[in-house]
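note to self — DONT lose this again. spent like an hour looking for the file last time. sequence + predicted structure for the chain T wanted, 202 res
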Amino acid sequence: MLVIGITGGSGAGKTTVLNEIGRMGGCTIDCDALYHELLKSSKDMLLEIDGEFPGVIKDGILDRKALGKIVFGDAGALGRLNEITHKYVASEVEKILAAAENAGKTLAGIDAIALIESGLSRICDVTIGVIAPAEHRVRRLMEREGISREYALLRINAQKDDEFYKRNCDHVLRNDYESAEEFRLRCRELLSAVIVKTKGNI
């Protein structure tokens, strides 16, 4: 199975790349969605988060804004949170990939939170970093999640800069297109080239 890891900051366009892999017949895994599922189902993960950041779990539910105020802008706190959540997400990803391969899938895409740091890169054959101008990302986050400009900026400023992805990923895909269709076509071009280069068999 050819496993393509997709990483990049919030609002850059990773989901578009993931969806394109799905259209090409691949297994797709959205780590952000997995994380939110685990927030509802994994008592162990919530206990670890509460142990590290007391008071952010109320009646068994994570108060995301309270946690955000602690970790965004504090690299040490964000790193500690990532150590906890990535461990659980990575475990779920490995189970899904194994099941997909057993079912005969030959292509997979992982849209991963902080892919490089989390250790998921070890199970990826190729990594693609998606970058976009900060203003575009702010707008997309505000539209998608209904959050304030201030909170969107906090999230973006707490994440890696473009140079990080250029240094650590096999390919970088810049999303500065106003047209969603134009970016989708660029995604398909890059993915097709990656598959041919790695001789992936879809």
